[in-house]
Amino acid sequence: MRFLSFLTIFSTIIFLGSCNKEDLSLNTSDADFDVPIIIPKGDENYLTMDSDYVFDQNALHTFELKISESNLAFLDADPVAEEYVEGMLIFQGDTISPVGVRYKGSVGAFVGCLSGGFFPPSGEKTCTKLSMKIQINWEGRDEKFFKQKKLQFHSMNLDPTQMHERLGYWLFRELGVPGPRSVHSRLLINDEYVGLFALTEQIDNRMIKYNFDDDDGNLYKEIWPLSMSGEPYSDQKYIDALKTNEDDNPSIDLIKNFGEEIKNASSTDINAIVEQYMNIDEIISYAVVDRTIRHDDGPFHWYCFGNDCSNHNYYWYEEPSKNELHLIPWDLGNAFENINNNANFVTLIADDWGETSNNCEPFPFGGFGTEQWSASCDKLIKSWSTNTELYDQKKQLLTNGPMSVASTDQILTDWQNQIKAATVEASDMHNDALSLVQWEAAIMNLKEQLEFARNN
User: Could you read off the pLDDT of 10-27 as tens digits, one per residue?
Assistant: First the structure.
C-alpha cells in the first residue's frame, strides 16, 4: 500500500463516503490534485447491484474519469507502455477513488493514433480517444463495481459502424457460445466528452462466474492445446497463459492431456476424443458465428513469423465438474470486414472453412504478403470442420434466428437510435471523430454484408 501523507489522510476524511460530480469538480479544478481515498458507505448502487445493470442493452451509460494533468500527460506520452496511473471513476453520482487507469490494446488499437511507427506501435497519443482499462481493485481495494474488477472501454477507432464488437458478441451469445457482454458508453475525462466507446466485459473470473455454474477452473489466454508442430506446449507455457488461479499452483493437466490425446489420435478416433473434452454443439456454434461474421483476426488465423505460426484473440476455460474445455471469443473489432469485399487484407484468411492450402506449409497472402498457415492443418480444428451436417444446421439456426433480417435490422435500428446523439456530439467536438454521414453509410454497408453472409 502506498505511503499516505497527512494531507492525503485529511483528504480521505473529507471525501469519506460517496461524493457527487459537483463536489469533485470543485476539488479537482487545479491542474494537479491528490487522488482521495473514498471509503464507500456500503449502500451505493455499484456495490449492491449486479453487472446486468452496466451491460444493459437498453441503456447508454455515461462514465467520467478524473485524472491529474501530470498523470494524464504520463499516459499520453507512451500509451503502448500500458502502465496504470491513479485516477477517479464517477458514475451516476457515485465516486470510486482511487482506481487504476491506463490505455490498452495491441497493434490494431493504435493504428493512426501514435506519433511513432505502426509495427511495433510507438510514440505519443495523437487521437482524441484510445481504448482504456480501469482497474477497480486498485492498490488492494476489495470493492467491486457492479460485481466487476475491471472496465474496458474500446475506442472503435477502426470501426466506422461502431457495431462490430457489440453485434458480434451478441450473436455469439445468442447462439449459445459463452462470450463477454458489450454495450456502448459515453466517456468523459476531466469534464470533457471524449466520445463513444464499446464497454466490453473483461474476460476474467467475474465473467466466468457469470457464465458458468462451476467457476473454479483455469482460464487461459491465447494458448492452443497443440502448437503448429502438433506437440503440446511445455507446462510453463500453459502456466504463463493463466488468467485465473495463477497464484495457486493449479494443475494444467486437463488442457495438456487434451492436447496429448489429440496429438496421438487417429483420424477415426479424434472426433470421439473431442466430444469427450468439449461440447460439440457449442464449439460448432462458435465456428459458425466466427466464419459467418468473418472474425479473421481470431483463432482461425494462424499468423506466421519465421518458422513459427500461431493464433490469437481467444480464451479457453476449463470447467472442472464437466472436465470440459470452452473456447471464448475475443477482440471482434475487425470482424465483419471481409464478408463480401476483403476490405482488411492484413487479417484476411485465405481458406474457406475446412480447407487447406500449400500442403500445410506457411504461405504469403494478402496485401502485405504476410505469411499464414491453414487453420485446418491443426488436428483439432480439422476435427471440428468434419462436422459438416451440424455446421449446416447451426448456420441455418443463426441466419434464420438472431442474424435474420428482421432480427438484425431491428437491433441495429435500436442501437443506432441509442447512440446517434452521442455520435453527433463527438463529431461536433472533435475533428477526428466520425461524421454522421460516414457512420450512417457504414451501417448501410454492414447491413449489405450481413445479407451477403446469410446467403453464402
Answer: 333 333 344 443 344 434
Burial 178-211 (b: 16+ CB within 10 A, else e): bbbbbbbbbbbbbeebbbbbbbbbbbbbbbbebb
Within a domain: 400: no
Q: Is residue 1 part of a domain?
A: no
Question: What does the alpha-carbon distance between residue 72 and residue 324 come to, in Å, rounded to a whole number?
Answer: 44
CA angle, 193 then 143 then 33, to 5° = 50
Compute the distance between CA of residue 33 and CA of residue 298 in angstroms, rounded to an integer.
42
Give 184's strand partners. Answer: 198
258, three cell numbers? 487434451
Please say which residue of 201, 229, 245 terminates a domain: 201
- Grid cell, residue 397, equals 439456426
Q: Are residues 219 and 188 in the same domain?
A: no
Report d(CA 159, CA 332) in Å as an integer. Answer: 10
291 within domain boundaries: yes
What's the mean pLDDT when you consider all of the chain?
Answer: 92
Tell me the residue range of the domain where 391 lies: 213-395
Model confidence pLDDT, tens digit, residues 372-390: 999 999 999 999 999 999 9
Check whether residue 220 and residue 182 sit in a common domain: no
Q: Do residues 44 and 190 share a domain?
A: yes
Name the domain count of the chain.
3
Cβ 225 vs Cβ 380: under 8 Å: yes
- Cell numbers 454522421: residue: 436
Tens of pLDDT along 256-274?
999 999 999 998 999 999 9
**pLDDT for 138-147, tens place per residue?**
988 889 999 9
Judge if 160 and 283 occupy the same domain.
no
